[in-house]
TrEMBL record:
Top enzyme category: hydrolase
Keyword flag Protease: no
Species this protein is from: Mytilus edulis
Entry keyword set: Hydrolase
Full protein name: 6-phosphogluconolactonase
Length: 212
């Protein structure tokens, strides 16, 4: 792998401008070469950078196909839904055909939504086992996570599936409450010398606990 290229902007505006110019250049060359531009996007600050900079750009939006590198399993009207942020902040603004953006189906279970999403991707990349997108735009969180893949998570070892479901807190709840970790996770260090610790969990978060 070639060494990473690092580009630093002095302000958010500069970062957005530089990034969006790169995306548009990539879109132009992909559309020229193959007739479409397939791009995967993430959530977080990337949404702001893209939605601020892209709408005023010149490109053939009908040739774009937007997928999600990670997405939260929430209804479209939830403020945490990355799809809706791009739909309102980009797709609707530029008049891109709504079928050119591919959301997950939050009405399905997390597992079924992952299977369904893989099918959606394969329809756009019918001739290949491992789809190759023209561009994948990833963000990184303060702990180094990307695509909802957190440090030490077992999904980091996944080598075959192209889409995997990840159940938010279930793994970490199990580690905090039942793990035998040498270095305790922050939440596992809540140990009052005088008083109780009470966890209120929804079913999903509690789903990996063995001792309840
Ligand atoms: O669930 C995720 O993994 C996030 O949605 C991810 O897509 C986001 O890119 C990072 O969390 C970075 O976010 P910031 O750019 O806001 O730091």
């Amino acid at each position: 792998m070639a060494a990473p290229i690092i580009r630093v902007g002095n302000t958010d505006k500069e970062v957005s401008k530089d990034l969006c110019q790169f995306v548009i250049d990539k879109a132009t060359s992909s559309i020229q070469e193959r007739g479409t531009f397939t791009v995967g996007v993430s959530g977080g600050s990337l949404v702001k950078y893209l939605c601020n900079g892209l709408p005023s750009s010149k490109t053939d939006w009908t040739k774009w196909r937007i997928f999600f590198c990670d997405e939260r399993h929430v209804p479209y009207d939830n403020s945490e839904c990355t799809y809706t942020l791009y739909k309102t902040g980009l797709v609707d603004k530029v008049g891109m055909p709504p079928e050119n953006i591919f959301p997950i189906n939050p009405d399905l279970s997390v597992e079924d939504a992952a299977v369904d999403y893989e099918k959606k991707i394969r329809l756009v990349f019918p001739e290949t086992d491992i789809p190759r997108f023209d561009l994948l735009l990833l963000g990184m969180g303060p702990d180094g996570h990307t695509c909802s893949l957190f440090p030490g998570h077992q999904l980091l070892e996944e080598k075959t599936r192209i889409i995997s479901p990840i159940k938010g807190k279930a793994d970490i709840v199990q580690r905090v409450l039942e793990g035998k970790e040498e270095v305790l996770l922050p939440a596992a260090r809540v140990r009052p010398t005088n008083g109780d610790v009470i966890w209120y969990l929804d079913k999903g978060a509690a789903s990996k606990l063995k001792n309840i």
